[in-house]
Write a structure and sequence with these properties.
297 residues, alpha+beta, Nuclear Transport Factor 2, Chain: A, five-stranded mixed beta sheet, three-stranded antiparallel beta sheet, 23% strand, transferase activity
Length: 297
């Protein structure tokens, strides 16, 4: 049996602090170790000469907007270099090699890339890399995409870390995060099983003011890029809630979201529609979303 790491080293201290934090918050220790590894890679990216070539998106970015959520990958939009496996592998190796006093050791020899083709939504390169933290053996992957638009452009983002402090790097603006998820919901219609997208929209709307014109412009930008036609969610997802309830309930239970999301998918969908559909209309106004009152004012 491997002895528990002591607090004599940065790796041991981080391991034990993450273990204690996970137990206090009722989360899985492995989940927090993985999230810490993702944060460690991003901290190295922020210090690198490549920081301006990548924009953070996806699940890790949600920690800057709302509650962080479990994920095993980092989603980055890239520019300034080729969409090629060898190029992406080399950049991940270089970033992982940057010294940082967080106890993590990345194994540059473990870097392995592959092309991603996720239906029509995503094309890019997935790079796998292993790391250690004290006695923990960890694996993450970095998903690198190319060519997606960002309106009006990336924003400086402060990403909170599990054990305190922040990572400062370029990220998607909140209205672009919302736009990508809402356009995906329209495109997939009632067959959509991307429950996390609905939860993310719900979480952002719970905590952040959003300008309706910004959201509408972002929606139009994403729709144009994807060749999608915008229409109200209430229309695109009519009849979905009842059929989706069993799958939603099972996924919600697995993700342990009992205290943060509605039990009924209909209630979640109604909240998302109430937020999204005014911006999906023909004439967006100068109103702003008020998260406390959950309405456009």
């Amino acid at each position: 049996m491997t002895p528990r790491p002591t607090r004599d080293t940065p790796a041991g201290r981080a391991y034990n602090d993450l273990r204690n934090l996970a137990r206090r918050q009722g989360r899985d220790v492995a989940e927090y170790l993985t999230m810490y590894t993702l944060e460690g890679f991003l901290a190295r990216l922020a210090l690198s000469t490549q920081a301006g070539d990548f924009v953070l998106k996806g699940g890790v970015l949600m920690a800057a907007f709302a509650d962080r959520r479990p994920t095993r990958d980092i989603d980055l939009l890239a520019s300034g270099f080729a969409n090629e496996i060898a190029e992406c592998e080399g950049r991940v190796r270089d970033i992982a090699n940057i010294p940082f006093d967080d106890g993590l050791t990345f194994d540059r020899s473990s870097v392995k890339g592959e092309f991603i083709r996720d239906e029509a939504d995503y094309t890019g390169v997935r790079v796998h890399i292993s790391a250690t933290l004290a006695s923990a053996q960890l694996g993450i992957h970095v998903d690198i995409s190319f060519g997606d638009p960002i309106w009006p452009g990336p924003t400086e983002t402060d990403l909170p870390r599990l054990l305190g402090g922040t990572v400062q790097l370029l990220g998607y603006p909140d209205h672009m995060v919302l736009a990508e998820k809402l356009v995906t919901a329209i495109q997939r219609g009632t067959a959509n099983t991307r429950w996390r997208d609905f939860v993310d929209v719900y979480a952002i709307a719970e905590g952040r003011p959003i300008a309706q014109r910004d959201l509408r412009k972002s929606l139009a930008t994403v729709a144009l890029h994807r060749g999608a036609n915008l229409r109200p969610l209430a229309q695109a997802l009519a009849g979905m809630a009842e059929a989706a309830q069993p799958q939603w309930a099972a996924w919600r239970r697995r993700q342990r979201l009992d205290g943060t999301t509605p039990e009924k998918f209909q209630d979640l969908l109604d909240a998302v529609i109430r937020f999204a559909d005014p911006a999906l209309g023909d004439e967006p106004t100068s109103r702003a979303w008020n998260p406390q009152r959950r309405e456009w004012l």
